[in-house]
Write a structure and sequence with these properties.
The complex is a heterodimer of chains A (114) and B (114).
Chain A lengths: L2 E4 L3 E5 L4 E3 L1 E4 L6 E6 L5 E7 L5 E3 L5 E5 L4 E6 L8 E11 L1 E6 L3 E6 L1
Parallel strand pairs in A: 2-12
Antiparallel strand pairs in A: 1-4, 3-9, 5-6, 5-10, 7-8, 8-9, 10-11, 10-12
Chain B lengths: L2 E5 L2 E4 L5 E8 L5 E7 L5 E9 L2 E4 L6 E6 L2 E6 L8 E8 L9 E2 L3 E5 L1
Parallel strand pairs in B: 2-11
Antiparallel strand pairs in B: 1-3, 3-8, 4-5, 4-9, 5-6, 7-8, 9-10, 9-11
The chains are: A mainly beta (114), B mainly beta (114).
Chain lengths: 114, 114
């Protein structure tokens, strides 16, 4: 069965510093991977997705992620964070069993300090 | 473009009372529809999903039920709420027959049980 592990529950960083949020997945079949962001009291917004092709995918708000098949990882990065990036970030893997379903990690709370 | 609406945004209900949360999608046909619950400080738990009118799959045994009376309408219900039903409920949709496509989320309903 597919699963997703987000290795850090909380990540504090200073404004304008780089950040990496780690995500590892387990799957025995081809995967589709996603990163979502959730601001307080809001739904989830898609940041980026990996479907196939180039292993480096770029998303909204300056985020990017790299798919590494050998390490079964899909880490999210941003070279310089802003206060407005403070949010919860979720990694997810797609499971297709009749209907498309997503398996989510437990989330990483990113806190940006001035 | 497609949009998803959830209501109400917040709800406070006494233990033992009934529940009805509604979700509608616009701008697409025959979407897959999903209900998730997010407990405080935790990840997302898939409750129900639907691939068509009247077709409901339950992921976990619980005090809740779901119905899909129309193509783009998804309803989450309970006859008698429990304290453990408190949480943040999210509705989502994805394109039918496209396992590599992301899910798109509504803004959620914050449910508090007293």
């Amino acid at each position: 069965a597919q699963s997703v592990t987000q290795l850090d529950s909380q990540v504090p960083v200073f404004e304008e510093a780089p950040v990496e949020l780690r995500c590892n997945y387990s799957s025995s079949v081809s995967v589709y991977l996603f990163w979502y962001v959730q601001y307080p009291n809001q739904g989830l917004q898609l940041l980026l997705k990996y479907l196939s092709g180039s292993t480096l995918v770029k998303g909204i708000n300056g985020f990017e992620a790299e798919f590494n098949k050998s390490q079964t990882s899909f880490h999210l990065r941003k070279p310089s964070v802003h206060i407005s990036d403070t949010a919860e970030y979720f990694c997810a893997v797609s499971v297709s069993q009749g209907a498309q379903k997503l398996v989510f990690g437990q989330g990483t709370r990113l806190t940006i300090n001035p | 473009s497609q949009t998803i609406h959830q209501w109400p945004a917040t709800l406070v209900q006494p233990v033992g009372s009934p529940l009805s949360l509604e979700c509608t999608v616009e701008g697409t046909s025959n979407p897959n529809l999903y209900w998730y619950r997010q407990a405080a400080g935790r990840g997302l738990q898939l409750l129900f999903y639907s691939v068509g009118i009247g077709q409901i799959s339950s992921e976990v045994p619980q005090n809740l039920s779901a119905s899909r009376p129309q193509d783009r309408q998804f309803i989450l219900s309970s006859k008698k709420l429990l304290l453990s039903d408190s949480g943040f409920y999210l509705c989502a949709w994805s394109r039918w027959g496209a396992p590599n496509q992301p899910q798109h989320f509504g803004d959620g309903t914050r449910l508090s049980i007293l």
